[in-house]
């Protein structure tokens, strides 16, 4: 399969997953969209899939993770372990993002802000989650796919409290990938 076939297959798969998410948001009882707003829900807005925003990141894993307190959208705080740092190149520049877990078996949580935050994307940032098939160790390389970036549930309803990206995860670059600002 050549690169263009792989890219089009990836884009098709991504669009299918996005349609499934729209269906969940529109009909499921656990949707973050308040029931009174679902009649007007026409689906989430996304940036077009773009392979530019699928990056290979070098992993630093901290054996003695620092415990951080992250602010949340409702003014409370939540504790996470800063387990990873991911170093990658995007748009010709080097960047890093920290990855967090509350429990060792949790997915790797990467809350972030970029230059689209508050303009084209949700005002408090977006999230990525990595669920590797095996344990990620120091020196590994993992893919970070910003096409999978999503808005937290608090973007749709104030009944949810969401961790806010800490300043160390504020990227000084435009990342037009993943979910756009909710239009509710």
TrEMBL record:
Basic and acidic residues biased stretches: 9-29
Gene3D superfamilies: 6.10.250.1680
Region (Disordered): 1-40
Domain of life: Archaea
One Pfam match: DUF1684
Protein name: DUF1684 domain-containing protein
Source organism per UniProt: Halovenus salina
